[in-house]
Design goal:
Distance between the termini: 64 Å
Order of helices and strands: EEEHHHHHHEEHHHH
Oligomer: single chain
Structural class: mainly alpha
Number of strands: 5
Shape: globular
Radius of gyration: 20 Å
Strand order of the largest sheet: 1-4-5
Helix content: 55-70%
Largest sheet: 3 strands, mixed
Number of helices: 10
Length: about 280
């Protein structure tokens, strides 16, 4: 049994300016996306695109900027809508109090999808092509966020068997019994493992939309599993069938991912636009 190491959430204090570890993990996530997105430009079909269809580093930077907006706006609105709709309907101004905490991954995902649709239309690209480009670059950012959760000592796991060697006591949970370090589980599953699988999968020719579909299925499945070890939100508890809100939100995500991957209606080879016109 391990004891959660008390970590000062402030990484650096410069006079009145406090730099938090959680903020640094966000910066790391953005930096990793920029690095991987630049590497992704070398993958097919993006490396072979020429003329107006060509992908450039500027595209990666623009997607990152729009994606950050999508994560913040969508993540906040998703939390308010999925987790506390009644409260925020009664206190609508508090929707803007993001410093009080409260973000939803699934809401952030919807925000990112909206930003990708806008980017695709503004560039005259198929939005599934944009989604396929982005998908393998996302999991490392998710991994960085879970490290931030662990440093903050939040989103701890459910009670664990005292014999579990890595069971961890989180005093801030109000209990001195060992729990699953679910933040680390999610870091390993939704972050590192999903990244490795997607990065390898995306290197070979795929139909347009299949890489994005694989991301949705992979994240949804790994998150569904991890939720069995994560303490459900105290104000919600477990919902019908003994599932958490996170698990219920993963169900349509997985279903849409399977449809996206398998649907023949969007079975367009992810080939360069210039080549397709020949």
């Amino acid at each position: 049994m391990l004891m959660y190491p008390t970590i000062d959430p402030v990484a650096l204090q410069l006079g009145p300016l406090a730099v938090h570890w959680y903020g640094l993990t966000y910066l790391a996530a953005f930096g990793l996306f920029l690095f991987l997105g630049t590497r992704r430009l070398r993958h097919e079909p993006f490396a072979s695109m020429t003329g107006p269809a060509a992908w450039t580093r500027k595209d990666v930077e623009d997607i990152l900027f729009l994606g950050v907006l999508g994560v913040v706006v969508g993540g906040r609105l998703g939390y308010c809508l999925f987790y506390k709709p009644g409260y925020y309907l009664s206190h609508p101004l508090e929707i803007f109090f993001i410093w009080q905490g409260g973000m939803s991954f699934h809401g952030g995902l919807l925000g990112v999808i909206a930003s990708m649709v806008w980017f695709a239309r503004s560039r005259g690209r198929p939005w599934l092509q944009v989604a396929d480009f982005v998908a393998p670059c996302v999991p490392t950012g998710l991994a960085a966020g879970r490290i931030g959760n662990f440093i903050n000592g939040e989103l701890w796991g459910r009670f664990a068997d005292p014999a579990l060697p890595w069971g961890m006591v989180f005093p801030q949970s109000g209990s001195m019994l060992p729990r699953h370090p679910s933040q680390i589980y999610q870091f390993l599953l939704e972050g590192l493992l999903l990244f490795m699988l997607l990065w390898v999968y995306a290197r070979k020719p795929r139909l347009q939309g299949q890489v994005a579909g694989a991301f949705l299925v992979g994240y949804g499945a790994f998150r569904f599993i991890a939720e069995y070890f994560r303490e459900p939100d105290s104000f919600l508890g477990l919902l019908p069938l003994g599932l958490s809100m996170g698990q219920w939100l993963c169900v349509p995500m997985i279903a849409f991912g399977i449809w996206l991957w398998a649907s023949p209606r969007r079975g367009v080879p992810a080939a360069p636009v210039a080549a397709a016109r020949r």
